[in-house]
Task: structure prediction
Amino acid sequence: MLVLGIDPGTAITGYGLVDHKSGKEKLITYGTITTPAGMKMHLRLCIINQEIDRLIAEYKPDAVAVEEIFYHKNAKTVITVAQSRGVVLMTAASAGVEVAEYTPLQVKQAVVGYGNAGKKQVQIMVQKILSMQQIPRPDDAADALAIAICHIHSYRLGALYK
Result:
C-alpha cells in the first residue's frame, strides 16, 4: 500500500510518500510545496493543487492521508489552512484516490504511542520507522511522513477487524 501523507498549509505544505510491503514501511520520497508570501491566495491554492495533482499522477498512491486542522488561537491561520486542506481533499477526490483524515493526536498516538508527544519525538520515531539516516526536515515534511505512517497503521488495524 502506497500512502501520500499531507500536512496542509498555504505557505508550506508538507508531503511524504510511504509504501508498506511485507509488514515494513519504506520511504519513497518527501518534501514541501512552497508558495511565495506575497502571492494572492487563489494563486497559492492553484500551485498546491497542481503539485498534489503531479504527485498523485507520478506516484499513483493507494490513499492520501491528510491532517485535520488543530485550532489553537489564530483564527486567520485556521482559515488559510482550511483552504489548503480543501484543495488537497478536492485534488485527491478528483483523481479518484481514497482519502483519510487524522487529528494530530491520532498521528502522535500511531507513530509514538503517546498523544501528547512533542515534535522531536515524532521526528525521531519517523526516522526509526523509515530507517532514515537523519531526522526528516523540515517539520512540515516530517509531519506528512508521520501522517502517512498513521494511515498505514490505522488501515492495518482496521483490516484485522474485517
